[in-house]
UniProtKB/TrEMBL annotation:
EC number(s) from the headed UniProt entry: 1.14.99.50
The organism of origin for this protein: Nocardia speluncae
Residues covered by the Sulfatase-modifying factor enzyme-like domain: 165-424
NCBIfam families in the cross-refs: egtB_TIGR03440
Keyword field: Iron, Metal-binding, Monooxygenase, Oxidoreductase
Function summary: Catalyzes the oxidative sulfurization of hercynine (N-alpha,N-alpha,N-alpha-trimethyl-L-histidine) into hercynyl-gamma-L-glutamyl-L-cysteine sulfoxide, a step in the biosynthesis pathway of ergothioneine.
Reaction equations catalysed: gamma-L-glutamyl-L-cysteine + hercynine + O2 = gamma-L-glutamyl-hercynylcysteine S-oxide + H2O
InterPro entries in the record: CTDL_fold, DinB-like, DinB/YfiT-like, EgtB, EgtB_Actinobacteria, Sulfatase_Mod_Factor_Kinase, SUMF_dom, SUMF_sf
Keyword field contains Cytoplasm: no
Protein name, entry field: Hercynine oxygenase
Superkingdom of this protein's organism: Bacteria
Pathway it works in: Amino-acid biosynthesis; ergothioneine biosynthesis
Amino acid sequence: MREHIASTLQRARQRTIALTDSVDEAELVAQHSRLMSPLVWDLAHIGNQEELWLVRDAGGRDPVRADIDYLYDAFEHARPDRPHLPLLNPGEAREYVDTVREKVWDVLEHSPLQGDELVDGGFVFGMIAQHEQQHDETMLATHQLRAGPPVLSAAAPPVADSAVRGEVLIPAGEFTMGTSTDPWALDNERPAHPVHVPAFAIDAAPVSNGQYLEFIADGGYDRRELWSERGWEHRHEGELTAPGFWERDSAGQWWRRVFGVRRPVRPQQPVVHVCWFEAQAYATWAGKRLPTEAEWEKAARYDPDTGRTRTYPWGDTEPGPATANLGQRHLEPADIGAYPAGASAAGVHQLIGDVWEWTSSGFHPYPGFRAFPYREYSEVFFGGDYRVLRGGSFGTDPVACRGTFRNWDHPIRRQIFSGFRLARTLDPREA
Ligand code: AVJ
Ligand code: FE
């Protein structure tokens, strides 16, 4: 357990270092987009959360830098204001996170890892590793927004041996949603509870660039009837005409910018950088709809043969290179059909990894929810103007991704690695 915690924390830190050492000091303190913090804010915020939870709370040690807590409290300062704060400079921020981490090794060595809810099963250490990885994914999104020549590289994702198309029928019935037993599951994933889901069909794969190009070519962005009122308003205000980072040349060829590299849009890849309103308009155009969160989770976790609910679509084993495109191993989604070993019991592909998938659901607590260990992780966001995303992206580390993991964002956001898949209500004769 202690070894596992240590290596998980170390993996997060290696990634944080790679994301912050790859740009110069000027770029670390710059704001690459009003939607994002300067990278140097994320860096010190990672250290500050680690200090609050592991050094002070779990470890009962004296503060390292109580004087800077206010700077790195995400609720104190909105993102556009963060570059103007008296932040630690890059050198100070690096030294700070190192000092905190040194103390954490000592706390970990002496923690009983049981007998207290915060440390049982290593929970708070796992929570902090997930927190760092979540900010690493946010920093990866900042890298995607930055201008200038590329600084990140990774192997190309695997290609598919065979096509995956069509939809999978999931019969009506109850399944267990959420978890009460996964030791590192966060508060909003708890508790496990039965949910009856009416029969539905869900696409075996996420929507591809090729399919999305048909929507564009068919006037999808100009047909009022395909969009909700708010969606249409945002489509105009945001001047949306294609997914984020796409452009069309004078010959009509579509290109997309991927971490500073201009590449042709690859039809067999899942579409990424679309907002919820775009996903909804596409679904209307296709005569379908987005899945609810419960439908998504049932398609991912329910095994009709045993009636059991799995941790991951493929079973209970940790994600690996053959099952899911996670962990920034690649810098883009893999082709549709590239992970046959990661399919769910029902035969649904690429639910975990590649792209976060928008669902139709708002962010609400499960019955029996209890905020733990702090209200600001989930509770303060319940009932707000958010939509839930599921499944993780190529930029999500496995520690922060499982069949129960819930992400959420505003329906206009698309700087995240967001795509979607479609579902459909069955008519009574089909069901
Ligand atoms: C769960 C991804 C929406 O990044 O805003 C990071 C995670 N919470 N620090 C976010 C989080 C506190 C959160 N999301
Ligand atoms: Fe945070």
